[in-house]
Every structure is written in structure tokens, then in C-alpha cells.
């Protein structure tokens, strides 16, 4: 029997997303409030004697070669530590793909953690985060998890106190939005309303969910809402269904709303399932690291 490790890879939402400027190297400097939620992919990784990396996934359109972030993550540590064995990986995807929930980054983070355990590499969390940034700007956060302020290009992380109990409804319309397209079409000079990130942090610290939710804002909506009115429509429906407030996560198209009671979110979830069955919808909760 060869050793196997299974792990959940949790998705995230952005409680607030601001873009400060475009750097000379083309990257955007951001200020975002990140929150891990209970929607997850599942990775099963088994050591095999022959020196290959095999990935099997339930989504036929996902790459299973070096273009899959799980492959790159495993290869990174395999090369650095000259690991001769191979890996057989089963990736069960549940986080919507290319949806602004960092599904691929979460998978890559989980793959690094699994490699560390399977081969007793002795890497600390910060050692893993240093390597994670080579795979993508959100991957270090996916190792840290929980509630955090993310700055720089996403790699400068400050942990924040956990969100107190609140209920989050995620609704994902069936459209695809490329992150690259959104950033390329962002016109920072035309944005009049930036999120009050410091105000959100203040509310999180004093456990004022309502205050926090009312301050939620995402500057990337200025690009996506123009091209995809469905995003604004879902936000309005969420609020009409009782959400304190609703915004898009990341570069979209996933929209989420924050609710204060279990009964309110159940009712809203039923509404979306019955009246908009073409959208995916999930009730999730914030989780701690
Ligand atoms: P972010 O919130 O970081 O912008 P995202 O939700 O927009 O992420 P992902 O779901 O991570 O996007 O996927 C973006 C692209 O990355 C997909 O089009 C897909 O082909 C590729 N990809 C590579 N590996 C994975 C993976 N393990 N899971 C999902 N997508 C992956």
C-alpha cells in the first residue's frame, strides 16, 4: 500500500476589493479583504513508484497536464527536493472554475501542503507561502486561509480576526469572465467609488457584520457589470431577497450576499433555485484557518 493523503481545498470570496495602481511591470497593486468559505474541492494524492504525475478530475474541460495548478505545485516541490517517486492525483472540483473564488489557487495550496506531509519535508507555513507565490498571487493566501488583508499583488498578507457568524449566499451565473480581460479593461481614472477597506477592517474587529456588509465594494465590477448586466441583476435580487448587501467576488462572475439569519438565507436560496435554476447557488459560511 502506498501512502495517500486527502485534503479539502477551500475557496474564497472578497469582502472588499480595491485596485490602487498599475505597476510598471504590468501587475496591479491591490488592497483586498479575503475570506475563506466552506465551498471546497477535494484532493486525493497517492505516492506511486514510477516517476510521473497523473491527474484525474471530474471536470473534463480542465487541463490535467502542467497547465493544471495542482501539477505545477506538486512538480515545484518534487523538483526542489529531488523526489523520485511519482504522484497519482484525484481532483474533485466543486468550486466554480474561473469564477473569482480562487479555486485553482486553493487546489495548488492544498497540493503543496499534501506534498509537505507525504514526504515529511519539514516546511513551515511561511516556507510554503514563499514557494506558493511562484504559482500565483493568491496561492500564499490559500495556505494562510481565514480572514485577511491582502496587499501588494496579493502576496502581502495580514491576518484579521475571524468573521463572526454570518451566512453567505453564493450565486454563479453561467457566463465566463477572464481575469486577464477584467484587469486589462479596468480604467482606474474613471472609478469614483473605492471600497473603504480600513472601515471594513474596523467593522470586522468590532464584529459589526452589518456595518462591514454595507461597506462591501469591488472596483472590478466597473468592468464586468458593463459587459454582463446579469451580475448587477443578481446583486439586486439578493438585496430584494433580504441580503444586507451583495457584491461580485474577485474578477467575477460569482456574486455573493451576506445575510444575518439562517431563515433569511434559506428563503433566498430557495428563490434562486426555483426561479433561476440555470445559476449555481450555495449557502456557505466563513471559516477560520
Ligand atoms: P481567481 O479568483 O484567483 O481569479 P478564478 O476563480 O478566476 O481564480 P480558477 O478557477 O482558479 O479561476 O481557474 C482559472 C483558470 O485556471 C481556468 O480557466 C483553468 O483552466 C485554469 N486551472 C488550472 N488549474 C486549475 C485547477 N486546479 N482548478 C481550476 N482551474 C484551473
From TrEMBL:
<dbReference type="Pfam" id="PF00288">
    <property type="entry name" value="GHMP_kinases_N"/>
</dbReference>
<keyword id="KW-0547">Nucleotide-binding</keyword>
<keyword id="KW-0414">Isoprene biosynthesis</keyword>
<feature type="active site">
    <location>
        <position position="138"/>
    </location>
</feature>
<comment type="pathway">
    <text>Isoprenoid biosynthesis; isopentenyl diphosphate biosynthesis via DXP pathway; isopentenyl diphosphate from 1-deoxy-D-xylulose 5-phosphate: step 3/6.</text>
</comment>
<comment type="function">
    <text>Catalyzes the phosphorylation of the position 2 hydroxy group of 4-diphosphocytidyl-2C-methyl-D-erythritol.</text>
</comment>
<keyword id="KW-0067">ATP-binding</keyword>
<feature type="domain" description="GHMP kinase C-terminal">
    <location>
        <begin position="201"/>
        <end position="276"/>
    </location>
</feature>
<feature type="domain" description="GHMP kinase N-terminal">
    <location>
        <begin position="68"/>
        <end position="146"/>
    </location>
</feature>
<dbReference type="InterPro" id="IPR006204">
    <property type="entry name" value="GHMP_kinase_N_dom"/>
</dbReference>
<feature type="active site">
    <location>
        <position position="12"/>
    </location>
</feature>
<dbReference type="InterPro" id="IPR036554">
    <property type="entry name" value="GHMP_kinase_C_sf"/>
</dbReference>
<dbReference type="InterPro" id="IPR013750">
    <property type="entry name" value="GHMP_kinase_C_dom"/>
</dbReference>
<dbReference type="InterPro" id="IPR020568">
    <property type="entry name" value="Ribosomal_Su5_D2-typ_SF"/>
</dbReference>
<feature type="binding site">
    <location>
        <begin position="96"/>
        <end position="106"/>
    </location>
    <ligand>
        <name>ATP</name>
    </ligand>
</feature>
<dbReference type="InterPro" id="IPR014721">
    <property type="entry name" value="Ribsml_uS5_D2-typ_fold_subgr"/>
</dbReference>
<dbReference type="GO" id="GO:0016114">
    <property type="term" value="P:terpenoid biosynthetic process"/>
</dbReference>
<dbReference type="GO" id="GO:0005524">
    <property type="term" value="F:ATP binding"/>
</dbReference>
<dbReference type="InterPro" id="IPR004424">
    <property type="entry name" value="IspE"/>
</dbReference>
<dbReference type="GO" id="GO:0050515">
    <property type="term" value="F:4-(cytidine 5'-diphospho)-2-C-methyl-D-erythritol kinase activity"/>
</dbReference>
<dbReference type="Pfam" id="PF08544">
    <property type="entry name" value="GHMP_kinases_C"/>
</dbReference>
<keyword id="KW-0418">Kinase</keyword>
<keyword id="KW-0808">Transferase</keyword>
<protein>
    <recommendedName>
        <fullName>4-diphosphocytidyl-2-C-methyl-D-erythritol kinase</fullName>
        <ecNumber>2.7.1.148</ecNumber>
    </recommendedName>
</protein>
<comment type="similarity">
    <text>Belongs to the GHMP kinase family. IspE subfamily.</text>
</comment>
<dbReference type="GO" id="GO:0019288">
    <property type="term" value="P:isopentenyl diphosphate biosynthetic process, methylerythritol 4-phosphate pathway"/>
</dbReference>
Amino acid at each position: 500500500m502506498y501512502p495517500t493523503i486527502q485534503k479539502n481545498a477551500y475557496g474564497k470570496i472578497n469582502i472588499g476589493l480595491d485596485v490602487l495602481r498599475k505597476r510598471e511591470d504590468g501587475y496591479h497593486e491591490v488592497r483586498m479583504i479575503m475570506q475563506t468559505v466552506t465551498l471546497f474541492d477535494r484532493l486525493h494524492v497517492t505516492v506511486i513508484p514510477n516517476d510521473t504525475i497523473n491527474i484525474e478530475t471530474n471536470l473534463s474541460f480542465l487541463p490535467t497536464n502542467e497547465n493544471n495548478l495542482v501539477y505545477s505545485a506538486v512538480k515545484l516541490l518534487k523538483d526542489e527536493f529531488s523526489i523520485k517517486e511519482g504522484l497519482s492525483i484525484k481532483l474533485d472540483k466543486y468550486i466554480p472554475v474561473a469564477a473569482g473564488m480562487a479555486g485553482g489557487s486553493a487546489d495548488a495550496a492544498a497540493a503543496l501542503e499534501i506534498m509537505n506531509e507525504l514526504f515529511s519535508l519539514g516546511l513551515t507555513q511561511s516556507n510554503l507561502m514563499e514557494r506558493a507565490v511562484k504559482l500565483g498571487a493568491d496561492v500564499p493566501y490559500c495556505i494562510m486561509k481565514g480572514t485577511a488583508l491582502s496587499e501588494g499583488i496579493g502576496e502581502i498578507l495580514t491576518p484579521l480576526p475571524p468573521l463572526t457568524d454570518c451566512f453567505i449566499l453564493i450565486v454563479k451565473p453561467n457566463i465566463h469572465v477572464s481575469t486577464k480581460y477584467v484587469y486589462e479593461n479596468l480604467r482606474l481614472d474613471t472609478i469614483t467609488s473605492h471600497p473603504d477597506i480600513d472601515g471594513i477592517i474596523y467593522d470586522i474587529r468590532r464584529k459589526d457584520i452589518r456595518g462591514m456588509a454595507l461597506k462591501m465594494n469591488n472596483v472590478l465590477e466597473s468592468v464586468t457589470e458593463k459587459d454582463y448586466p446579469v451580475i448587477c441583476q443578481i446583486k439586486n435580487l439578493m438585496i430584494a431577497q433580504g441580503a444586507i448587501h451583495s457584491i461580485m467576488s474577485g474578477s467575477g462572475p460569482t456574486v455573493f450576499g451576506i445575510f444575518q439569519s439562517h431563515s433569511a438565507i434559506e428563503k433566498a436560496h430557495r428563490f434562486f433555485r426555483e426561479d433561476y435554476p440555470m445559476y449555481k447557488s450555495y449557502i456557505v459560511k466563513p471559516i477560520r484557518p
